[in-house]
Write a structure and sequence with these properties.
Mean pLDDT: 88
CATH topology of the largest domain: Alpha-Beta Plaits
Distance between the termini: 35 Å
Shape: elongated
Largest sheet: 5 strands, antiparallel
Strand order of the largest sheet: 2-1-5-4-3
Helix content: 40-55%
CATH architecture of the largest domain: 2-Layer Sandwich
Number of helices: 13
CATH superfamily of the largest domain: Reverse transcriptase/Diguanylate cyclase domain
Radius of gyration: 31 Å
Structural class: alpha+beta
Strand content: 15-25%
Number of domains: 3
Length: 360
């Protein structure tokens, strides 16, 4: 990375000072130079000479060492042994050191955020590293998990990165072939709907412009960098729970999971026990697809018999007959609120057990 950072500056100096300008690493190897043919050469005697001081003259060139990571990793050399060459080398050393520090800090910030999100850094080290990188720890942020379900060869990472170009505030990185993480800085107290709109714009851009189908899980907004790992885990849970209970949704927010989140956190043995207790009189498998569809519409119409019968284009008495049939099979009268709640939860538990989702 240093080679690319330095080469752009050094090459521009070629016409400005009309001298050969280059950068060597600590082994004396030329890694950047205004004369491209010299890149890769090893400067004889450099390693021994660099120990004598930061500034020195060797083989017709003026050298000035500069620091990276608190020790001298590089040196600028300028053609000539006169005072002007020494001044050019000194100025360039200062400039390149600042540029390298800026690029390293930007790269390190992204790497730091990735380690925090993936819980690869000890809590006690988070603040020390944040201070070292001049990273604001008390800014509100939220984690988006973008999962590609189908698409082209275009990288979702590249698309999302282009949507959020401020690399000092927003961080994008891959965690797998299909999963991309966005850590977004937000205003304090932002409305959940605004986060969902932002997620929707990501999904729309991926699908509309690049034919990439994706879903987005949204964690809970956090006010401190140490909680980013928790927000990421919530985004993962949202994604998995949505895959089970909201299969048609492309945006799933952890805060809106409702009772599905509770079911997801229950042990499977407890779920199986609950189903056995609810359906003592008859198995849930005894209900055919038409009956299950009727139950779904009945719940969607808030247990209103008249509205449901109209929506199903059946006579009211036909619906009542179906509900009585369900009561006979299961012992639950869906016209009664308490029984309806139990049945609704049981259906969700059954769906959850059938899906066998990944746990986080």
């Amino acid at each position: 990375m240093a080679n690319r950072v330095f080469q752009g500056v050094v090459y521009q100096m070629k016409d400005a000072i009309n001298r050969v300008v280059g950068v060597v690493d600590e082994t004396g190897t030329v890694i950047s130079c205004s004369d491209l043919n010299m890149i890769g050469e090893v400067r004889d005697g450099f390693v021994a000479e660099r120990l004598t001081g930061d500034c020195f003259v060797k083989d017709g060139c003026s050298y000035h060492q500069f620091s990276s990571n608190k020790h001298n990793d590089y040196a600028v050399y300028v053609e000539g042994t006169d005072e002007t060459a020494a001044q050019f080398a000194s100025l360039l050393a200062i400039s390149l050191q600042s540029i390298k520090q800026y690029h390293d800090e930007k790269f390190d910030k992204a790497n730091f955020i990735k380690n925090v999100v993936l819980d690869n850094i000890l809590p006690g080290d988070i603040y020390a590293k944040a201070r070292e990188l001049h990273f604001a720890t008390d800014v509100s942020r939220v984690v988006f998990l973008i999962r590609v379900t189908s698409g082209t060869d275009i990288s979702a990472y590249d698309v999302v990165s282009s949507l959020f170009p401020d690399k000092q505030k927003d961080f994008v990185f891959n965690i797998s072939e299909t999963d991309t993480v966005l850590v977004k800085e937000i205003k304090r107290g932002i409305d959940q709907k605004d986060l969902e709109k932002l997620a929707s714009s990501i999904v729309d851009t991926l699908s509309g412009e690049h034919y990439i189908k994706a879903t987005v899980g949204i964690g809970t907004p956090i006010a401190n960098v140490k909680d980013l790992a928790a927000s990421f885990k919530e985004a993962q849970v949202a994604m998995e729970v949505g895959k089970v209970f909201d299969t048609e949704q492309s945006i799933i927010s952890y805060d809106n999971l409702g009772i599905a989140r509770l079911i997801y956190q229950l042990p499977t043995t407890l779920c199986e026990m609950f189903l056995r207790e609810v359906f003592k009189q008859g198995s849930i498998e005894s209900l055919d697809n038409e009956t299950l569809f009727t139950i779904q519409r009945f719940f969607e119409n808030n247990l209103n018999v008249s509205e449901t019968s109209r929506g199903l284009f059946v006579h009211r008495n036909t619906l009542v007959y179906r509900l009585e049939k369900i009561k006979k099979l299961t012992g639950l009268d869906l016209r009664e609120f308490d029984d309806a709640i139990v049945f609704k939860v049981a259906l969700m538990v059954k769906k959850y057990l059938s899906a066998n989702p990944a746990k986080y």
